[in-house]
DNA sequence: GTCTTTCTTGAGTGATCGCTCAAGTATATT
DNA sequence: AATATACTTGAGCGATCACTCAAGAAAGAC
């Protein structure tokens, strides 16, 4: 029941907590909140109920950790993209990246999936997803602002509006990519073309 | 157990089947598949379990009926819009309409919500939603084709591509509209502006 | 080796899930 | 009124849900 309380540890946990959170994130990402049972988690993480609850407290708490990991990984990836290719280059590369990365367990955005599933229930996790979506939008906004400052795009439209529109299109693209028999690459390329002509 | 089998009926059902399906559709639309329990349905439709199963067979079957009603109502609405305002007018009016209609129980598209929730489980209802999304896309495609034939928009891009992009943006718009604190009207207006300059 | 602290185990909790069915009730036909 | 047929009722089914906890196993401290 107590994980890592005292400094001198008689017995260390036999797992890598961070890896477990990543595995849980992948499961939740693909199957959603209600679609992921504790049996699923126990099987994927190879943990018995007791260990699971000692380590994470509850399914809800683990989902929250998974959401935060999802968001912070995404944020870091975009930041890296911006470091290497500039603000506009990052925004242009993102659409194709999110729908073609092979290691991701799903194409659709985990935040939007969570929001759609749980918002109607007033579930705390929906609010968390909502907050993280706002953070994402703010990051987009900052990049558009930099792109304008560096005169890479026109200043005709407010960065805030550009960011909102971009995020909306991106969410739509990622749903389209989740569908079978839809060539989302074409949509992504059009989206990027739209960015180029701003 | 037998509903409407013989012509001469000793006792007619006391409910309006179509209205029940609409009520169920609204519940499923907002709360999703797993998020809607039979207790919820029994309360909303004012039916005891026995009547429910006599009338609809199963929760899954009712959800299927609800999906079909959702899709056919949407299809008819768009057709009416086209009759009154032409193909381009219909496509231009749709975005603002779907995010601002007060009678709809949710902003996001029920088909996309169903797809996102159930696709990973290989659930039959996800396949149904997928089929209906394809039908919707086909309807968009036909309207874009008519708009080109009537020389309302350029023929530079294939109607199929225009339809796919439009549907993708619309799905994104509707998710954005579902969020709190997001002014989706601005996104919708931009989307419509994009259509005007095709 | 002994002790102490912590992690692991898994049978089992009450609650809720979708669903069944035997009994009761209502109505058109005769 | 009697009968036949079909709808309504609601207690309760087995299965699964997220979760608990007492007992056992492992490892650092001494």
Automatic annotation (TrEMBL), chains A, B:
Residues 37-56 bind DNA. InterPro entries: Homeodomain-like_sf, HTH_TetR, Tet_transcr_reg_TetR-rel_C_sf. Residues 14-74 form the HTH tetR-type domain. The keyword DNA-binding applies. Pfam families: TetR_N. Keywords: DNA-binding, Transcription, Transcription regulation. PANTHER family: HTH-TYPE TRANSCRIPTIONAL REGULATOR YJDC, TRANSCRIPTIONAL REGULATORY PROTEIN. This is TetR family transcriptional regulator. It comes from Amylibacter marinus. The gene is cifR.
């Amino acid at each position: 029941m107590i994980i890592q309380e005292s400094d001198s540890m008689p017995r260390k946990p036999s797992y890598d907590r961070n890896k477990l959170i990543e595995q849980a994130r992948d499961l939740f990402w693909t199957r959603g909140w209600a679609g992921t049972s504790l049996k699923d988690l126990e099987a994927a993480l190879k943990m018995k109920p007791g260990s699971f609850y000692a380590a994470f407290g509850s399914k809800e708490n683990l989902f929250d950790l998974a959401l935060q990991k999802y968001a912070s990984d995404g944020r870091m990836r975009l930041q890296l993209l911006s470091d290497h290719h500039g603000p506009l280059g990052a925004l242009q590369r993102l659409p194709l990246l999110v729908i073609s990365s092979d290691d991701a367990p799903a194409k659709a955005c985990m935040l939007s999936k969570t929001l759609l599933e749980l918002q109607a229930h007033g579930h705390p996790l929906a609010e968390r997803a909502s907050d993280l979506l706002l953070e994402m939008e703010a990051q987009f906004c900052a990049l558009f602002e930099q792109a304008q400052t560096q005169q890479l795009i026109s200043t005709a439209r407010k960065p805030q509006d550009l960011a909102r529109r971009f995020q909306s299109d991106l969410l739509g693209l990622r749903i389209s990519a989740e569908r079978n028999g839809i060539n989302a690459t074409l949509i992504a390329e059009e989206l990027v073309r739209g960015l180029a002509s701003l």
